[in-house]
Amino acid sequence: MKYADPYIAGVGLGLVLLASFAFTGRGLGASGAFAGDPWLLCELGGVIAGGFLSALIARRLTLVITRGPRMSSRSRLVTASIGGAIMGVGAVLARGCTSGLALTGGALLAVGSWLFIIAAFAAAYLAAPFLRKAWQ
């Protein structure tokens, strides 16, 4: 089952960000939804609905736990939950999420956002060889 072309998906995401600025005067970001911001609650609902529709259209709508061959389903769910909780705490401490920082801040040409994007990609490339072992 193929995934969407990353270049087409990237252009689509850029157009969604542009539409968000044009129609609402706001950028994209998700962490504020957990603080109860009505605009972000609608945005988060759209993300869920869009993900569902995308999986349905691509015929990828299945209930599966993606994991490496040496990891149990239980440990995958536990580590994913712990990672999600850490990301949530980090978003609260940083007063924003990575999607808002990278997408909206990057689109506004904020220097801090571009530094974050570079650092995040560098960290991912450095960590990938160590994390790849869990998936082989």
Summary keywords:
single chain, 136 residues, mainly alpha, globular
- What number is the mean pLDDT? 85
Radius of gyration: 17 Å
How many domains? The number is 1
Q: What spatial form do the alpha-carbon principal axes imply?
A: globular
Q: Approximately what portion of the residues adopt beta-strand conformation?
A: under 5%
Structure overview:
It is a single chain. This protein has 136 residues and is mainly alpha-helical. The chain has one domain. The chain is 68% helix and 0% strand. The protein contains 5 helices and no strands. Helix 4 crosses helix 5 (111-132). The model has no long low-confidence stretch (mean pLDDT 85).
The gist of it:
Helix 4 packs across helix 5. With 136 residues, this protein is mostly helical.
Write the layout of secondary structure elements.
Layout: H1 6-24, H2 38-57, H3 73-94, H4 98-107, H5 111-132
Helix pairs in contact: 4-5
